[in-house]
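Section handout 9: paired folding examples.
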Amino acid sequence: MKGKRGTSQETWGTALAALSAWLFLTGSAPAGTVEPIRFPSVDGEPIAGLLSLPDGPGPFAAVVTIHGGTGGASEAQLRSHAAPDSNSQTVQEFHARGWAVFAIDYRPDAVFGLERADVVAGIRHLRGDGRIDPDRIAVFGGSHGGHLGLLAAIDMGEEIACLGVGSPWMTDPRLYAEGDIDEPPLSVVPPRQRPVLQRRLAEIRSHLEKLRAAGADVPALLDSYSAKAQADRIRVPTLFLTSRGDVVVPHDFVASTIEAMMAAGRTVEVYTAQASPHGFYWARGPLPETPVLAEERAAALAIITSFFEGCLDP
């Protein structure tokens, strides 16, 4: 079902969350088929995906989901990003609207590897599937998957219809390569998370030094992987979901990229939670125990579904 224009975001969000919680607890989900997929990347390497289709002949609108973390996901991980019985209420909402959902993997390369090309290859594979409407394909990714979604939008232009990203990692690679951990925005990370951030920065900087020693133009490389530096190339409507309670990719890490896209005149929507942790945009499991987290989950679900409805079912 769709919410009417002017409906209270809180009321609509609460209704969505209640429906999603019911689906999660009862195990009820729309019927359809779930297919493991192998598609060739730019170099011919086969990459895994999982396609969930509604019943009926199609062609269907589709949401491509991109997981976070590193590549090489298990089939169970891909199912959690695509199947009707996913524990993600966000994925359940995609199914409730009759959309196909295609979860794509990428190889576990080092940062700045071929995972970017893998994602583009996966989206183009879906565009060539006759059961899918190629003009109604959206992309939704979180964390590293959000970064890869932004890069896909840069590389593919209007081959995708719109893009949603949750706490996208490394939208400005120069922050990770050159930023001072004791200065904003890196300094907003709380002390308990600081050692994790320090290790990650050290890994990235060590990798870049190896590339520099091998003759790479590191500044150019950083900019080529930067959504901030290429904000004007992201031509499709984009939804950002961030949180000030996220200690992995806080809102402040992403803010300058959002500002760059707005300055470039791009269509941008933003939802910023105040307390929700990293990954809140997938809305996994039962409703959170605290009222604030439950309200933020409901609001995020309402915004995500409204955004993609406007893009896929205008």
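Moving on to protein 2 of 2.
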Amino acid sequence: LQSQVNGNTSNAAAACPYTWTRTLSVGSTGSDVKKLQQFLNSDPTTAIAVSGVGSKGNETEYYGALTGAAVAKFQNKYKSEILTPIGLSNATTFFGNATKAKMNALCISAPNTNTGDTGNTGNTNTGDTITYSGNEATVSRFRVSSGDDTHLEEGQSNASVMDIEFRVEDGDITINRIDVAFNHVSGTEDRPWDTFAKVMLLVDGKEVASKVTTSKSAWTEDKPYADAYQVRFSNLSIKVDESEDAEFSVAVTLAGSIDGARAGLSWDIMIPDDGIRFTDGAKVTDTIGDQSNTVNIDIDAEGSNDELSVMQSDDDPETSTIILDADKRSGWITVFAFELDAEDSKNDIDVRKLPVSLTVSTSTVGTFVRDVRILVDGKSYKNVTITDGATNNMLFSFKSGELVVEEGETATIEVQVEFNALTATHEGTTIYGSVDSSGIVAEGADDLTAGQLSGSVTGDTHTLRTFGITTKGGDTKAEATGFDRTHGDYTIKFTVTALEEDLYVAPYATTSSDMSLGGVRFSVDGTSAFSGAVTSVLSATAKEMPNGVFLVRKGKTETFTLTVSIDPDQAGQYRVKLHDVYFTKNIDGVSGLNTHNLIPNYDYRTGYASIKN
């Protein structure tokens, strides 16, 4: 699809697109002054001079009296938008904030050099000759669909709201006019010129025509039907070749403040039945469109579509044993990680307060935790208020702009702890982190409300020890055996890694809570309470000592297998769960026992087997 719009390069094209960032007055100098003069000279009603210094083509970087007079002309031209809102009735020579805002809105893109509809802009002709197949073309399969963004906010720029497509066959065509119509559906503000600041046509994401729509004169009322409003793009020269699809998009820029936006507004957008006019190679002019085929957009107050979610993170450390020293504090250890997600937000989210909790199984968190911080992209934050207890509530505070989650992105938050020395009394204490969005204070375009915050996350549980084991499960089997499937056989395989010491595990498996014999503890459960005969065997790849106890050497990993056979008194669905491993530093395997809880429990249980009685 090729786009060409006839015309000559203008002085305005040299100025726009451009954004003025400071106020100016008589005596100011700089390149932005020259851009201002070029823009003023692009309109005969605001021209600085007819000839000589300051005239078209003779602009300078000095803001003199003539420039000030031209600025006053510009202010009078847009008096209702520049002077009236700030309580002025007479123009000034000062290029202030109100004047600057209006000129920036008009200079978003290079203006059109065509004569025709006021405010209609497009690309200048490259000078290439357009050739045609010479045949009479056929157009068909017209349709419109929602653009990339139909949920809009006040002040949103260049939002692609509607895609247009139709097929061209039998000959080439040149599109010379496109009408886009808007129909108010709901909401307080029903005047399009107070809602839409600019309407644009895009081809392949590039603007080919645009129209500033902040005045009533930019719209045709009651087109294509009563109470609808139409914007016309004329003097176009957009060629579509034979056997190709014509593909366009309509984009809009919204006014910065729209009445009723907080309660919500809704508009339908369409191409009228005769909304696209074209000429083919046989010089036949025709139209295409379908005003019954509409796209709906909704408009909310700025910031209404901002949101922040708390989500699980792949960086959250899995269940583990954290080895601490008995006589000195640890370094920084990550115990919990989660994500702050702004993927569906319209604006960047500035986080001001972030609550995080740590929970321990014995005593209070302060017994174990010397210091805490969070880590975001390698940067640490320690401005935290702590309330101690079995659950330790920590509220991290941030300066404005210190922790920003960009719109469409996520940020991973790591919670790191510096632990105190671990006493023998507290061997085996567990700790985990959690976060709930309800306590977050953050802002996008405005402060986020409770409805714009969502999610909560609880991390895996970690065991604190000066020595111990880590385990990994997941390899299980369950099957009904025996004549007519009246028995059940189950296996659970898991690995044991010894940390800091050589450790011993007795070759014993029991369903009893009595840990005096060591080994492992398991249970049998089912759809009905289990009763019946149970036999169990614990085997391992570890070295077996003369007394039958298994030795797992420091830093080594061994595989253990629990085999369980059951003969239930009742038919039903049954499975086996492995709960604890008992280990010790003593060769007898039973004195000085420590308990290692197997979590997450779904890694250490079999599936169900259906057993007949």
